[in-house]
Write a structure and sequence with these properties.
38% strand; four-stranded antiparallel sheet; single chain; disordered N terminus; mainly beta
């Protein structure tokens, strides 16, 4: 009986979403939280918003063009990706964003890091870029597809998956 009540309460408490205002009418593409209070979202027209109170309030940070993905490895260091091969990095929680040369001009739709040095970005045309020095240098990886790639997930620096259009799954 206790297990059934606990299970029912857990399902009930996680089945309700609360609408929060992001302070923008624009399309929001990606959200990432490093803990229950601190997170960022990105979207159209260079939208970057930051919260330190779980989304009750959002602070505008500067971006340049449409952004499709955001990823932080800690409270201060993160990356965003977007059109034209755009990758930007921050080391001060998004106060300043510095462009990194990705080596591609295609839209990058997803970015992820497994630590401060090792990361991947992927996007249109099956493009994959990887770095082992925090984004100072990005190099091409062969994907074997021309399908657009939309999401990357890694469980370690050596094991990951990428999902994309037309049922594309890379391992």
């Amino acid at each position: 009986l206790i297990l059934a009540v606990t299970t029912w309460f857990s399902v009930l408490s996680f089945s309700k979403w609360i609408l929060q205002s992001g302070g923008t009418p624009l399309i929001l593409s990606s959200v990432y939280f490093v803990n229950e209070n601190t997170g960022w979202f990105v979207g159209d027209v260079g939208t970057i918003k930051y919260t330190t109170n779980g989304g009750t309030n959002w602070i505008t940070q500067s971006g340049s063009s449409a952004l499709y993905s955001v990823y932080f490895i800690n409270l201060t260091t993160g990356w965003v990706a977007g059109p034209g091969g755009l990758i930007m990095k921050t080391t001060n929680s998004g106060v300043n964003w510095i462009a990194q040369a990705s080596g591609t001009s295609v839209t990058l739709r997803t970015i992820i890091f497994t630590n401060e040095s090792t990361g991947w970005a992927a996007g249109d045309g099956g493009v994959i870029r990887t770095t082992t020095n925090g984004g100072v240098n990005w190099t091409a990886q062969t994907s074997g597809t021309i399908n657009s790639l939309y999401n990357i997930y890694f469980i370690s620096s050596a094991i990951g998956w990428i999902a994309g259009t037309f049922g594309t799954i890379l391992y």
